[in-house]
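User: I'm writing a tutorial on reading structure tokens. Could you give me a worked example: one chain, its sequence, then its tokens, then a sentence or two explaining what the tokens reveal?
Assistant: Sure. Here is the example chain.
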Amino acid sequence: MLFPALMPKGRRATALQVTQFINRGKTLVLDVRSADEFAASHLRDAKNIPLADLGNRIAELEKSKTRTIVVVCQSGARADKAARQLKAAGFEDVVSLEGGMTAWTAAGLPVTK
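And here are its predicted structure tokens:
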């Protein structure tokens, strides 16, 4: 009974797939880590809204409803929660970065500080 609750819900994308989304344009990268984590390093052009603030700040993303939204956190768990929130709010094309920033940096992909 508990197993389905533990399964991640929503779409996930690998670092390579996220790179392809970004290169195609029409993508918003949403980083849901804390401001301190974001300041340490993040994907280029990412918007930072910590997961704890997302419910109150989701209106800031309204103009991006037609874009692909890639949600990023450190390991993927917070991104999955944020993706579910966005889907519930009517955002259709939402994916979370599988493995989060940990996987992104392990793949040697660029970050901004």
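What the tokens reveal: The longest helix spans residues 77-88. The longest strand covers residues 27-31.
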